[in-house]
Amino acid sequence: MVARIATLFVLLFWLPVITSSSSASSSLSVCIVGSGIGGSSVAHFLREYSSPSASISIRVFERHGVVGGRMARVNVGGDSFEAGGSILHPKNYYALNYTRLIGLKIRWPNATSASDGRDDDGDFGIWDGKGFVFKTWRVSSKLPFLDKIVSFANTALLFWRYGFSLIRMDNFVQRTVNNFLKYYENTDSRPVFETVEEMLKWAGLYDLTGQTLEEELISTGLSPLLIRELITVITRINYGQSVSISGLAGAVSMAGSGGGLWSVQGGNWQMAAGLLNHSNVALHLREEIQSISNLGNYYELNSSEGNSYKCEVAVVATPLDELDIRFDPPVSIPPRKLHHTHATFVRGLLNPAYFGLGSVEEIPDLVGTIEDPGLPFSSISVLKRHDEKEVTYKVFSREAMADTLLDQIFSVRKETIRIDWGAYPHYKAPEVFAPFILDGQHLYYVNAFENAASTMETSAVAAENVARLILSRQFGHVPLKLSGSESSVADEGVLHLDL
């Protein structure tokens, strides 16, 4: 009897150790569909948060021949420009950490290289179809003090037209940004979220998805003129939509029009490529996943190449709205329509007569438009000035630009490239969200968060949560691994001071 009790005591004593050892050394196979910033971030954070003893194999499937998803580039006349996600906010801390981790160079505002798709020193005008209702001044000078004078003068012009509503607008954006910064808090104090609604409510952002941006701004006290002109221009450029989009998407769009915006030299797609390389994944290019079946203990993924893959966890990191992936059993998500933005790249010269002007030099470097169904484009921006007679432009529009229309807008067209982007959701308040967990088991959907806002950084934030969700549900907790990269994310106070 004494021997039996002693044996039982030993078993009880060692049971937690045996269980812990077994859990820590468990293997996990993960398949990720999509190699954009969302899919590559899931792979990165799975590695980042896993204990060294955890054996996790990761496969990433990309239907195209290059990684990066909507962070694509386009070549126009031998120059390379951003065709998709172009800019990042100075407080996009995950993206900033990616560049440090991978060793990428950041292109800050006023950089001399023009080949990354932005001209930060240009002037700006709002076109209503008949004339420019607002224009800033431009002075070509290499004298810093003269640039500052022009900058102050343009600020005065803005205040003359829009008044103190500009300050209320800035306060609205800053409140939203400050709430969003909660997603960078230490993982000890930040929960793992199973739904988008929980994630937004925790950060104090959920209510913004229940009203349109216009309703939010009116309740904040912004003037109708500011909403109708400047803010409408911002939402049309960033999301191709009017101020009737949901409030959170609108606030994120407005934050993306501020100062200090940056990009990666050579292309933002390098973040995805670098994360995938750093995360030691098996990458399957030009292989589209056509079906995902839940077979009990694992998922079976069948591809366009006739291959079959088995994974314990499946992650969809690409919008399902226009993909034809068959799920067995079927999954149910709220219907959502992607908004298509047509990006037209033209190397040539604008026609000043179209804008009622006498010379090309009078046309602002960025032409934004108000909300008018008769206007054929959302914006026209200068990407690079080659000489006085040749410039590369990017035109955003809601419909494809016909040659006859382009010939009216441009006096010279040497090269024209058209891209039709299923770029982001068509936002409509109140927003309804798909679940992060599509089947209640181990099938995850990163892009469920896009109904809140669609940017490179929001994709990374959603991916980080999904990675923690996978680990917590698989192992019962998130087996955090201490590393330089993780500590830099957790200790964002230092990073805030640097910025």
TrEMBL record:
Signal peptide: 1-20
Keyword Hydrolase: no
GO biological process: prenylated protein catabolic process; prenylcysteine catabolic process
Stretches assigned to the Prenylcysteine lyase domain: 147-473
SUPFAM superfamilies listed in its UniProt record: FAD/NAD(P)-binding domain (SSF51905)
Pfam family, one: Prenylcys_lyase
Name of this chain's protein: Prenylcysteine lyase domain-containing protein
